[in-house]
Amino acid sequence: MILWRYFMYISNNILLLPVCFFGLYFILEAMDWGLCIASSFICKSDDERKVILKLLRPGIDGNELWFLLGITALIFFVDSVYNLNESTKILTGIIILGCIIRFIFSLGIDIFKNKTSCRLMTLFSIISLFFIGCYSFMPLYEESYLLSLVGVLSSFWMIFSCFQIGCIYGAVKTVNPLSERFRAGYLVSSLVSVFAYLIFSFFLKSYFDDNAINSGYYWIGLVSTLIFYVLSFYFVRSRNVKVGLVFAYFYLICSLSTYFITYVSKFSCWKILNVILIKKELVNLHILEILLITVIWTFVSFIYKLVRKKLIYKWNDYI
């Protein structure tokens, strides 16, 4: 409530809400997206694919509500959304469809444990993340370009970051040899991920050249990201994957600060709607109640995923 009032009473900060909501969605859902991608690259048998499908449970974890709140806030708070309406519908459909697919796959483990189903799930996840990455920068362009270079670079970073989080989570929650393959997948993907992030960040800085991005906050976020990445990589390489998972999430949060700073830098180009009118509309939509439900639902689901026991499976040595 305190945070909500802070944003609502300071009109210049009200545009931070969509960015925060989208960021929360990505942080909480990165694990599931990553597991979906990893299912085709890490697993070597139906039993191992069953383990990944079990890790997707509970399936419907409420994370999509953060995305829907972000879309709602973006539409309400920004009076220059340009041609985003059609793209917003497509993106919302992709997010919801992804949730439905993961839920169905997690329930029908014996049906979807085959290689073909997992490959389709991986392909859908990669395409979805690519579209999400491209969309994330559309509000910053007056012409609403979907395939901007910075958006494409953002997409590649998102794909590898989700794969990275999915792998390290799989390494924590499974047993060998699957756990060791997850760990190896993390070590390789994290190198690609941080390299993609550096390219994306420096290109973003040169493209949106203004005071906000050139301020110390940009460099603080960049340095913090690299520090947490090194710590995560070190602990995972040392086979202390639980600690590595914690630092991997800190790395992900700090890397998202690049988006946050970029949107802050573009505030002056946006026209803010009447704040009093926004408050009335949000009250009519019962946003506070929805926000409370979202916080409780997603928090409980995330804690469940972190404290669940390791999944043990029967491994047949084919060597």
Automatic annotation (TrEMBL):
Keyword terms? Cell membrane, Membrane, Oxidoreductase, Transmembrane, Transmembrane helix
Q: What is its main location?
A: membrane
**Known EC number(s)?**
1.10.3.-
Q: Which InterPro entries match?
A: Cyt-d_oxidase_su2
Q: Where in the cell is it found?
A: Cell membrane
**One protein family per Pfam:** Cyt_bd_oxida_II
Instruction: Please give the Gene Ontology molecular function terms for this protein.
Output: oxidoreductase activity
List the GO terms this entry assigns under cellular component, sorted alphabetically.
plasma membrane
Indicate how the chain sits in the lipid bilayer. Multi-pass membrane protein
Question: Where, by residue number, does the polypeptide cross the bilayer?
Answer: 6-28, 90-108, 120-138, 144-172, 184-204, 216-236, 243-265, 285-304
Q: Which family does it belong to?
A: Belongs to the cytochrome ubiquinol oxidase subunit 2 family.
- This protein is called Cytochrome D ubiquinol oxidase subunit II
